[in-house]
Amino acid sequence: MAKKYNLTQALLFLSHFMGDIHQPLHVGFTSDEGGNTIQLHWYRQKSNLHHVWDVLIIETAMKDFYDNSLEAMIEDIQRNITDIWSNDVPTWEKCSTDDLVCPVKYAQESISLACKWAYKDAEDGSVLEDDYFLSRLPIVEKQLAKGGVRLAAMLNRLFDPKESQTHYTEL
């Protein structure tokens, strides 16, 4: 008997996981639950480091630079993909001939960013303000761009008519 899979649900999971693996603290340290146990202040607001990277950097950028418009922020990131990051895009799209290796590469990139940027200067009880925000926002925006480009590339590979027969039989 053939197995039945819900393609919509599978695509939702894939897009969610692709986003998660590009958020550096989603591959952070288990000892602090990816920054969830690092209690601090984001400006005057109590928070934890994980929430800063999941939500607050983006919300602050939208408020400070994009007139609270998610659409404007997305347009800016898209513009960066086609302009200042355009030379990087081919390397973001290509992982290897073995798609199973790709998530490992993405996770390695993210943990490196977590160590270099997310955890740096973010100890328990610290107050994160403009210095932290302005130096981390470019990292967050580039990770959002990488995740989107890589998701698109993966979907293109999955749904390529030449490849689709192989992929669908694996599903």
UniProtKB/TrEMBL annotation:
Keyword tRNA processing: no
Enzyme Commission code(s) on record: 3.1.30.1
Enzyme class: hydrolase
GO-annotated biological processes: DNA catabolic process
One protein family per Pfam: S1-P1_nuclease
Reactions catalysed: Endonucleolytic cleavage to 5'-phosphomononucleotide and 5'-phosphooligonucleotide end-products
Sorted UniProt keywords: Disulfide bond, Endonuclease, Glycoprotein, Hydrolase, Metal-binding, Nuclease
Ranges annotated as spanning the membrane: none
GO MF annotation list: metal ion binding; nucleic acid binding; RNA endonuclease activity; single-stranded DNA endodeoxyribonuclease activity
Gene3D superfamilies, sorted: P1 Nuclease
Lineage top rank: taxon: Eukaryota
Annotated family: Belongs to the nuclease type I family.
Protein name per its UniProtKB record: Aspergillus nuclease S1
Species of provenance: Araucaria cunninghamii (Hoop pine)
Lineage: Eukaryota, Viridiplantae, Streptophyta, Embryophyta, Tracheophyta
